[in-house]
Amino acid sequence: MDIKAEKAAVVSQLEQVEDLELILAIKHMLGYGLKKQETDPAFVAALNRALQQSAQGEGRSHQSVKQDFRNRYPA
Q1: Confidence of residue 37 (pLDDT cuts 50, 70, 90)
Q2: For residue 42, what are the CA distances in angstroms to 1, 9, 75?
Q3: CA atoms of 3 and 61, how far apart (whole Å)
Q4: Which of 2, 11, 51, 62 has its CA 20 to 30 A from that of 28?
Q5: 23 contacts 17 by C-beta, under 8 angstroms
Q6: In angstroms, rounded to a whole number, what is the distance separating the alpha carbons of residues 34 and 71?
Q7: What are phi and psi of 37, to 5 degrees?
Q8: Domain residues of the chain, as ranges?
Q9: Based on C-alpha coordinates, what's the Rg of the chain?
């Protein structure tokens, strides 16, 4: 695996994102990964629950959740 190529692919994908919530979530996860910002224990607990649910095949796609929010809170 070429880390420079992987980083470039991530940057390319990120430049296409127009969803502020997704960008903020990615930014928070990067900060957590780099340990440059203190992470809220509630966020860590929620992230761990989400990872467990995902491993068990539970959960919903990002697209599905976005659609639910759009249906609930129309512009």
Answers
A1: low
A2: 33, 30, 30
A3: 27
A4: 2
A5: yes
A6: 36
A7: -135, 145
A8: 1-38, 40-75
A9: 15
Of 43, 50, 48, 49, residue with least CA distance to 65: 50
Q: Does 34 have pLDDT greater than 90? A: no
Task: For residue 62, give both structure tokens.
Answer: 């990002």
Lowest mean pLDDT among 1-10, 13-22, 30-39: 30-39
d(CA 25, CA 22): 5
Cα 3 to chain center, whole Å? 20
- How many residues in total does the chain contain? 75
**19-46 b/e with 16+ CB inside 10 Å = b?**
eeeeeeeeeeeeebeeeeeeeeeeeeee
Query: Which 8-state DSSP code applies to residue 59?
Result: S
